[in-house]
Each structure stands twice: as C-alpha cells, then as structure tokens.
Amino acid sequence: MLVGMPGAGKTAIGKRLAARLGLPFRDADAEIEIAAGMPITEIFARYGEPHFRDGERRVITRLLAGPPLVLATGGGAFADSATRAAIKASGAVTLWLRCSLPTLLRRVAGREHRPMFLNADPAEVLQRLMAARHPFYAEADVIVTCTDESPEVTTHRVQDTLAATVPPRRLPVGLGERTYDVVVGPGLLARAGGLIGPVLPARRVVVVTDSAVAPLHLPALRAGLEAAGIAILAEIAVPPGEASKDFSRLQEVLEGMLGAGVDRRTAVVALGGGVVGDLAGFAAAVAMRGLPFVQVPTTLLAQVDSSVGGKTGVNLKAGKNLAGAFHQPRIVLADTDTLATLPLRELRAGYAEVAKHGLLHGPLWDWCETHGAAAVAGETGALTHAVLESCRLKASVVAADEREESAEGGRALLNLGHTFGHAVEAEARFDGTVLHGEAVAIGLGLAASLSARLGHCSQEWPSRVIAHLTTVGLPARIADLPRRFTIEALMGRMSKDKKNRDGRMRFVLMRGAGDCFTSSDVPAEAVTALLRDEGALG
C-alpha cells in the first residue's frame, strides 16, 4: 500500500511497481468513485468528509482482504486513525512516498479541481496537510524519499528498498492493559517517531542519554522523532559509566526535565545502555509521580536484559540498585545496528546476560556454546538471534511475575549469578574496573560451582560454564579480575542483597541448563569456602 501527500506519485509509481511485481494495481479513490457512483468532489459536497472517510475505510478494507495487489490510497486515508488501524491489522506493507513541498507544488499544478484546493493557495494547503499528516505517514513500514527524478527511477528505488527491508520483530510483554512490545531489528532509530508515536499520550519527549552514546546515535534518533512530529523538549546527557547511577545525578536529570517544561503527558526516552535506562526510568517513575517512559537500548547488555521488565533504580553505597521502582516502558526499541559501535569489552560484557539466559532456558545454552563466539565477534545474525531469544525469555518471565513476588522461581531466576556479581561490582565501587556483565560472568561461574558443591548438579556444569565464558573472552573466576577482593567484604555485600529474605542470603542455583531454582538453604561456610578457593582473600 502506497501512502503519501497529493502529488507524491502514488498512482504513477503504484502502476509501475505492480507491473514489475506481476500484481494487479488498484487506486482507492477510483474504487470509491465506482462504488459511490459519483466523483469524490461530489461525495464531499453532498455528505462531508466523515461520510467519505467511512466509505474509504470500507473500500480499502475490502481490497486488502482480497488477493495480493498494489494499492494507492488517497492522501488522507492513512491519516485517519480508524483506517490506519484497519490497514495495520490487515498485515499490508505500507510505503510512504515522502516528497518535499517544492516537489509537491510542481506536481499538483493544475489540480485546482480537487476538493482541498478549491479557492485556496496550494502552498498553504500542502503545508497545513504535511504538518497534520506526516506524523502518521511516519508510521509506515517503509519510507522512500522522492525527488524530481523520473517515475521509472523512483519505482526502481522503491522496489530495491522493499527487497532490502528487514521487517522488525515484535515480542509482546503481556501485562494486561500495560502490555508493550519489544521491537527488535535494524534501522529502528531512523523510524523511532513512527514506532513510538502510537503509544505516547502526547508528541513531546525528553531524551536522556550519555556523553559517549550521544554523538553516535542521538542525531539518528532526533531525526526519527522529528519526522513523526515529536518535539524534543530537552536532551540530557550524563557521563558514561555506573557512577552516574546515583542520587546526585538523578537530581540533575530531574531538574533538567522539569526545567524544560515537562508535564504528565511528556515521555522520557532513554537512549543508551543499562545505566541510562535505569537512571532515566527511575527519573520517569518519580517525576510528577510518573511519566511515560520509552527504552531505546544501544548496548547488548541493555537490549537482552535491562531494558525489558521495568526495573529502574540507582546505586547506594550499601550496594547496587538498592533504590528504585518498577516502572514499565511503553515500548522498547532494540536497534541491532547500534551494536556495531560497541567496544569489544562492552559487547562481551553484554553477552554474559545472554549466557545467563541460556542457562535458564536450556536450548539457548546449547546455542550459546555453538554460536556464542560468533556473537561476541559481532556477527549480525548471531547477535540478532541472541537479542530475540533473550527478550523472548525475559518477556515471558516478566509477564508471569512482574514484581518478583513468586515464592519460588519466577522472576527471581533472572538473578542467576547476580548475588555474587552485584557483590563484586559494588565492592569495586562502580569505578569501571569491573563492568556489570563481567561481574555477572564471575557470578555465573560461582553459582554453577556452588550448585555442584551442594550436590545439585554434576561437576560437568561449572566446568562447562567457566570454559564457555573463558572462550568468549569473559572473566569466569574472581582470580581473573584485575583487582583483589576479600571474603569478608563480599559476604558483607551479599548479606545486604535486596533479594534476601528473613535475613538469609538467597541464591539462584542450577541442576542443569533449563533447570534452575532459588534457595535460601545455603550454608554460609559453603559460600566462604568457595570464595576462598576461587581467589578471594582471607
């Protein structure tokens, strides 16, 4: 289905495209006139626009329910909310032929008989219509910018673009009225406005990012939002790194948001890794007692884990994420193209969460052992699979146990390796010497070893887990880290872990890949002995 302004060339391009694809071509306006037995100008004059839009919707719905075809629509069809919803529900591929105002003016010359141009200045009419309709055209699946080139050249570009387009995958996080999609695929930043717009209460946002991500990805996000008529009230950049997840930085973000004039219908967009997502999400949760929130993760760790599920927060001196809130996003856009800009160390750190999901899932662990090295090497197909399957697993777990309230298992299982990992990370004072994913990798090795020592799994499992993590370049033992930790300090950190119950440390243990469980029945002596054997001091 071709959508766009009057003069965009929907009919001219549509006929040529249909011939190339071997499909019939239909023009919605012509079909409407046949069905009504009168010209569109007369329909408007006699019955008004609402009547015309109802008939237009019925004709388009009928055509889309039939055999495959190329369909050109009137300029206002896709801007009508009910018609747009019917088009999306049909599964049709929508393509916006985007033209500049000068190009449109040259093409509509001589069309003064059309209802919208009667007794009016075409430039003024087109400007007004572009402002009103472009935000909705931006929701099209594919966008092709047209120039004054010949229709044949444009048709060739349209066909090439359609052939090269990789449709994003949508994974729902089922939370009743608060259900949202995790959208995974390439090129999502450029289409951000069209993807985000339908779930926002107003077309106003504040973007929170960090100073390392902003030069790489903020221009594309900005252009994508502006194409859909979404106003950016402020762009707030924090320093990169875990140290930005504290109350002083939170206050800076809040002051920046409120100073920009946000209201309760203004959304907060987090562009960056897990630190930005956690910080911006917490700011959205507490500003004015809750603002809409959108996650646009740009790191592997954030795409496969922290952006999904609504956990937000900041760190305290006592430990990681000890102040926070559950605040679900309206949508998550995981643009896999952004992963190409990650330093190798960050990519490896993100992969630790993929390995964790593999151990929880079972079959995904088998995939990790076979293809994990390719993912860490930046192979696009492997990374996309890792993101999709990790998000699929996490979405199902979050939908079943959103607030980690299950007595056993549930969302708490997603903390496999994290009791140890958070202790290591906090004891390193979040200074960057140990990344979150590296701490998780250490935790996975320790969790597997502890499980084996307690008799829950065979010794094969810690060997396999540690060997795989080492193969992909991650630290797997405390002794692998560039600094030393004492047993006393790590045990002290774990005793304050937010997952503990009734004063007892709580661990996620494993019987094998796909068979993990939570337990508070872990002797402290077993933990201290393990830490000592794995390289902790004392």
Automatic annotation (TrEMBL):
- Catalytic activity from the UniProt record: 7-phospho-2-dehydro-3-deoxy-D-arabino-heptonate = 3-dehydroquinate + phosphate; shikimate + ATP = 3-phosphoshikimate + ADP + H(+)
Keyword annotations of the record = Amino-acid biosynthesis, Aromatic amino acid biosynthesis, ATP-binding, Cobalt, Cytoplasm, Kinase, Lyase, Magnesium, Metal-binding, Multifunctional enzyme, NAD, Nucleotide-binding, Transferase, Zinc
Q: Which GO terms describe its cellular component?
A: cytoplasm
* Documented EC number(s): 2.7.1.71, 4.2.3.4
Instruction: Spell out the molecular function terms from Gene Ontology.
Output: 3-dehydroquinate synthase activity; ATP binding; magnesium ion binding; shikimate kinase activity
Could you say which cofactors this protein requires?
Answer: Zn(2+); NAD(+); Mg(2+); Co(2+)
Q: Which residues form the 3-dehydroquinate synthase C-terminal domain?
A: 350-500
Name one process (GO BP) from the record: aromatic amino acid family biosynthetic process
* Cell location: Cytoplasm
Binding positions for substrate per the UniProt entry? D29, R53, G75, R133
Domain (3-dehydroquinate synthase N-terminal): give its ranges: 236-348
Sites binding NAD(+) sit at G274, V275, V276, G277, D278, T298, T299, K311, K320, T338, L339, A340, T341
Residues engaged in binding Mg(2+): T11
Q: Which residues does the annotation say bind ATP? A: G7, A8, G9, K10, T11, A12, R114
**So what does this one do?**
Catalyzes the specific phosphorylation of the 3-hydroxyl group of shikimic acid using ATP as a cosubstrate. Catalyzes the conversion of 3-deoxy-D-arabino-heptulosonate 7-phosphate (DAHP) to dehydroquinate (DHQ).
Subunit and partners: Monomer.
Which HAMAP family does this entry report, sorted A to Z? DHQ_synthase, Shikimate_kinase
Sequence similarity: Belongs to the sugar phosphate cyclases superfamily. Dehydroquinate synthase family.
Q: What is this protein called?
A: Multifunctional fusion protein
